[in-house]
Amino acid sequence: MSATADHAEERTNPAGRLGFQPEQVVQEIGYDDDVDQELREAIEEVIGSDLVDEDYDDVADAVVLWFRDDDGDLTDVLVDAITYIEEGGSILLLTPKTGRDGYVEPSDISEAATTAGLSAAKSVSVGKDWSGSRLVTPKGAKTKR
Description:
Elements: H1 3-12, H2 14-17, E1 26-29, H3 37-47, E2 60-66, H4 74-82, E3 85-96, H5 106-115, E4 119-125, E5 130-136
Parallel strand pairs: 1-2, 2-3
Antiparallel strand pairs: 3-5, 4-5
Helix pairs in contact: 4-5
């Protein structure tokens, strides 16, 4: 593949735009048959391995969290997700777009993220049915690298 093709893939692969990097361990929470399989495959392509599931028992670099309005309390789910990631890691919160079953109000996302101690880095459209909010954990005085 040429350098130009590599560069074009970076722009078109949503996983790269969302900040995923090769060799990251990415844990997936909330998987169901309604998730965006193309996005999952794009993330796996960038990181070079499969997403790990909710039973993964080590610390991940990032979490992909599929959340629908009827999945419980978003704040609780976010607090739990934080325990799975490295300090300074991120959570990609994926919620159904406006008008789709399970839609979550942006104000609810913002409130839950703030309560959980997260800050929203950016919101993006990640497919025809899902919107993503990249949430980051606060960085401490020292970062793990």
